[in-house]
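Retro notes - structure team

What went well: the batch runner handled both jobs without manual restarts.
What didn't: labels got mixed up in the shared folder, which is why I'm recording both outputs here explicitly, each with its sequence directly above its C-alpha cells.

Job 1
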Amino acid sequence: MNAIGQAAGDDPFNAVRHMGKGQKAILRNYITGNDHLEYKQLSDGWCQLNVTHSNLRVQILQQRLSLHSTIGEIKHKLHHHCGTGPHYMELHLKASSVGLNTTVAVMNDDSKKLGFYSPQNGMTIHIVDQDPNSLAKTGWLENVNLVKKYEISEEDYDKREKTVRSYKREQLAKDPNWKPKCRMDVPGGVPGKENAPAPGPETVEGMEVGNRCEVQPGARRGTVKYVGESKGNGLGAGHWIGVQFDEPLGRNNGMILGTKYFECPDKHGAFARGKNVTVGDFPEVDPFADLSDSDDEL
C-alpha cells in the first residue's frame, strides 16, 4: 500500500483529498487527456448527437446515428427512448455550441437522410412532442408520484398475521407494560453485545466543543458541537460526540427525538462515538483549491 492509500484508509475520495497539488494535476490530466479524441472513433458516415424532449427532463446523450438513415428511421429509433409516436414528432437540429435554443434546421421531411441537414458531432436533436394525448406531457413517464400506490385499510391490516402490529398486540396482551427494544438503547449499540458497558467519559477524553475534527467512516470534517452523555431516548447509553459537518453529510440539525443538543443547519449534524472521531488540524476542504492551470509542482 502506498503512502496515499495508508493516509486515506483505502477510501478513494479521501485519497484525492490527501493528494498533493502536483498529484492532483497528474490525475486531472489523466482523466481529461483523451477528451479531444471523443469523436475520433466514429466511423465515416456516422455522427454523435444528444437528444432532448419537449416534455421530458431526461437527456439522451451521445447517440451514434448514421448520416444515411432517413429522418423517418431516426424517429422510429427515438420512439423507443422517449415513447412519443414517430408521427407526432417534430425534430429540431440545434447547435449546442451556441446554445440549445438556437435551431439550425427543422427536420420535417421523413424521406430525407440525416446527412442532408449537415449535423455536426455534439449537436442536439430536440424532439417536439405534438401528440395531444402524450403521456410524457403530463409527467407519467418520469414522475413516479403520479402512479397510484397500493393502499390497505386499517381494518384489513389489523386482520393480517405476522405483522409488526400483530406482534406488538401479542406482546402487550402478555405484558401491558411491554415496550419494544430500541437498538440505540443497547449499550455499545451493537447487537449481540447487549452486556457490553456503555462508552464512558474516557472515550471522549481530550475532545472539546469548538475542536475541528474528522469523523469516520468517510473522513467527514467538521466542528465538535457537543461532548457528553445522551439525554433522551434517541441516543444509546454512554458518551457521544455531536458534530456539525462542513457539508450536508449528516442526518439531523443537532436534535434527536425532540432533545436539542446543539444548533446547526439541517443535514449537517451527526452523533458519533469517540472512537470514530479524531480532533486536530482539519481545515475545511476545498476539493478544487489545487486544480488551477498554473500548477507547476511535480
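Job 2
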Amino acid sequence: MVMKSSPEPSEPLRQPKRLILATPRGFCAGVVRAIDIVNLALETYGEPLFVRHEIVHNRYVVEELRERGVRFVEGLEEVPAGSRVIFSAHGVSPEVRRAAVLRSLKVIDATCPLVIKVHHEAAKYAREGFAIILIGHANHEEVIGTVGEAPGAIRIISSAEQVAALEVPDPGKVAFLTQTTLSLDDTREIIARLKARFPLIQGPPSEDICYATQNRQRAVKELARQVEMILVVGSANSSNSCRLVEVARNAGVPARLIGDAEDIQPGWFEGLSVAGLTAGASVPESLVDRVIGRMGGLGFSEVQAAGGILEEVQFALPSELVRDARAQGVLDTRGEAPHTHTATA
C-alpha cells in the first residue's frame, strides 16, 4: 500500500502594513496666503525682495523661495532703505512697523488674519485698562509681535502652574488671550485655572487658537485610536508641529517629529503594522508624499486616509499687491495667480 505524503503547509500570506494619513494636514489658509504673497510679489516686482524672518516655519519652503531670489533677513537694518519687504505670517510689533516707515520701506504684510485678530484684541484690552494674560511661548515670533501691541499690560504664561504666581494691579480687570498654535487641551486647562483665580476675567468672543490648529489636533487624536505610532512632518521651530507630537503622545501613542523622509529610521517600526502620518500647517504636501514613498519602502504599502474635516477657508491677498499684479498681467481678471500653492484638506 502506497502512502501519500501530506502536502507541505504553505506559508501564511504576509499582510501589508498600513499607513493612515490624518485629514486635514499640512498647509492652512494663513500659510497658503503668506506663500502666495511672496510668490506673487516676486513675479510682480522682481528682485530684490526681502522677507523679515522665515515667511513660515518650514525650512524647505524657505529654501525653495530663497532659490527663487527671495532674501530672508532677521532685522530691518539689513534691508536697504526704500526697498520692498514682506512681514512673515507670524506678525510683527508696532515698533517694527514704525522702523519700516523710518527706513521708507515698501511693506507687504503677510501676517495671518487670525494673528492680526489677536493683536487687535490686545490693543483693545490695553486701551480699556486691563491686565492681559497672554497664554503662549515667550520666544515665539507670534507672541513677540502680540506683546509689542501692549508691552506694559501683557504677562506671558505657558503652563497652568504659573497661574498661581500671577500678580495684577486689579483682579477685577483681567483679560486673557492665546497664541494661535497652542495645544487645545493645555490651553483649556490654563484658562480654567485663570477663571478660578480671577472670576471676572474676560476673554475673546471665541478661543483664539485657529481653526486649522484645532482641526489638525483633533485629527491626530482620531488617528491615535487607529495606529501604533505617529509621524509628524514639520520643522523643530514650528510650534504647531511640535504641538501635534505632544497631542499624539498625550493620547498614548509614540510620536516623532521629522523634517523629511530621510529622517526616518527603520528601527522605529520593528514589530509595528499600522503607522499614522500627519503634517504641521507649514508643511507642503510634497514632503508628505516623500514620506509616504519612504514608508512604502519599509513595507507600509497600504495607504488610507482618516478623518475628513473639509477646510474651505480662504484669506484675501493684500489689495495693493493684487492691483499691481493685475497691472503687470501676473493675475487674471478673477484675481487668480498662475503659480500659487494650494492647501491640503
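One thing worth noting from job 2: The longest strand covers residues 18-23.
We'll revisit the folder naming next retro.
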